[in-house]
Design goal:
single chain; alpha+beta; four-stranded antiparallel β-sheet; 11 helices; globular
Amino acid sequence: MKRDSSRSLSYWIRAAIAVVALLGLAWGLAYYLRSKPVASTSSKFQNSIPSNHPMPNAGGEAATFTTKGSVNLTGEFFQAQGTNGQSCATCHIPEEAWSITPGTLQRLFDETDGTHPVFNLLDANKPDMDISTAKARRDAYSMLLTRGVFRRGGAPRLNSEWELITVDDPHGFANVNQLVHWRRSMPTINFPVGSATVNWDAGSNVGKGQRAALANLTNRLVTGALQGQPPTAEVVDDIVGFEESLWTAQVTMPGVGRLDSDGARGGPQALSTMSKVEGRFDLFDAWIGDANAKRAQIARGQEVFNSINVSHLSCIVCHNSANNGTNINNTLFDINTASAEARTPDLPLYTFRNKQTGKTRQLTDAGLGNITGRWDDLGRFKTPTLRALAARAPYFHNGISATLEDVVSHYEKRFGFIFTDEERADLVAFLNAL
């Protein structure tokens, strides 16, 4: 009887030890999962997307093509690389031509009361704002929610040809020692036929070509916006390789059908077979005079884009990479998008003074000028790809144009283009078809 009691006691002791061990293991796993940042995307897609899968936008549908058969959504591009849960895919999503729009940002805010990892104090209107309540977070992230712009910037470049003498910042953060630049998320697409300049102000370019610039940008984003440690070479190669594999463009439009049909060469798959060369857009030459009025309009808009305007200006002077629209020479341009005249009330205004001549200039963003320190580079920005424009409004580096109609209007008001009503409508139709 004593032996049976002893065995029973021994059994229960062993069972208790096992339970304690299992509880300890469960606690340890929970702690690990809680302390490890969860990779965050902003897309509704998971795991993979078939090539050429149509995704609706305001102008019809865009799609992404890859020679791999499907777009893999599980690589390093989609993994949290730092401590704040953000990944590259937090701000670059397939539905919006691998950028992100205010509409999606508003949806993410509403779904999470502003706690989604895309909302980080690094991109708040000020870095010390109250984010303790949903209302406070909505106020803190108003620039993201209304304009889809992220806060970038830093100290004015030392030993520049200019000096910063006054600052008017409606958010109360920028000053003569601290520039704030509000920037849209650049689409990570069409790099093989694109400019070697990979971000708005060429800040990541290192003089060794596009891939080196992409690698440098990846390192900067991981250690900056993603708040992580410097990534390994393998992680950088995986992210850059993924970006280089994405071909994205508009693929259908209402009343038009597929943009790669009946001789036209729109859509991402046709783009993937094209070379990086200087020249005109000829995607829709086959639709010149087409019986379908909307197709004929797109072809007319293409000719408006390619032709010298009556103002002696041409869109193709800057957008001279054939059928892609970046600049073949990697040149950055000042098209007055950072001018005081184009300023909206939520943007800062800086007064720069030329140290040699005393001349002053007011801008909302220093652009390339804060990278090179040159006076003539102030207000210059990258010429981005024009493909899949309909998927990624608002436009320009600071999102000052909500629609493509507003883009055309900007060139008329700030840059001197002159269009008839028909030419304006044709041009917008063409831009929507890209």
